[in-house]
Amino acid sequence: MRVRSPATSANLGSGFDVFGMALREPYDLIEAERLPERAVELEIVGGYQVPLKPEENTGGYVALEMIRDFDIGGGVKFRIWKNIKPGSGLGSSAATAAAAAYAVNKLYGLGLSATELVEYAARGELVSAGAAHVDNVASAIYGGFIIISSRNPLKIYSIRPPSGLGAVVVLPNVEKGSTRRAREVLPSSIPLHHLVHNVGAASTLAAGMALGDPEMIKWGMRDVVVEPARSSAGIIPEYDGVKALGERFGAGVAVSGAGPAIIALIEREKRSELAVALKEFYRSRGYECVVYVTEPGPGVSEF
Questions:
Q1: Highest CATH level, class, for 2-159
Q2: Active site residue 115
Q3: Most C-beta atoms within 10 A of its C-beta, which of 52, 164, 198, 287?
Q4: Model-level pTM greater than 0.90?
Q5: 33 included as an active-site residue
Q6: Residue 290 confidence (pLDDT) above 90
Q7: Which one is the CATH code of 165-294: 3.30.70.890, 1.10.472.90, 3.30.565.10, 3.40.50.300?
Q8: Phi, psi for residue 248 in degrees, rounded to 5
């Protein structure tokens, strides 16, 4: 079988480790086939290079876990077209993990629910981030916009974003370091007024998704906790400038996941103009970048 697994954007500003959204582009393609022996094999056919040892690859690790837990007599081989850049803040590791969980479930008829697939895919994030966080893998499996209201027990709500909502993603050519590092720089405590702000912003964003109101969505992307901390640590280059540019265009702008990618949400018909402006902004400051003119998209599926 061939599986399409989307890039995802976690946090969306105010919803750290709670919000996530699948994107229509970019996406990975993964071919999966059963093996007669109990083994996991990986082959990178195109795109970016990722670890080939199953225990070091997010998808390979997920497959190993599922084979063990369900006492599967066979194995699986993955052929991967890795189009989502690792370390970009676009859920590259989650895309592989989600695809693996989806494929093993289908190939061996395990009958797992979407929530159970998220739990298995999250194990892959232990390999890349050191924590089984679920915001990216849940977005990749459910598609659209998701809210993680509880981790234990896992409770996920899925909302279809407004049809007129578009997205522009800018990936500057910088190295941010590991996702572990991006989490290490976060504060262990915050002022009460920052908590109040982020709760209000996140509530507005979620309500905007449910009501189909882009203005509420854009306003709700304002974060005063996580993004400023990462910007101060030097992880997010040109943070203040790109936020200001987004405001001039009437877009909601946030760091995608742990960065360095930036996501801007705006009405679909305004995406192209914003994409040009963002590309010029980064180039004027000496950064080459890749720009995706995209939109919210579906979750992992057969292709």
A1: alpha beta
A2: no
A3: 198
A4: yes
A5: no
A6: yes
A7: 3.30.70.890
A8: -65, -30
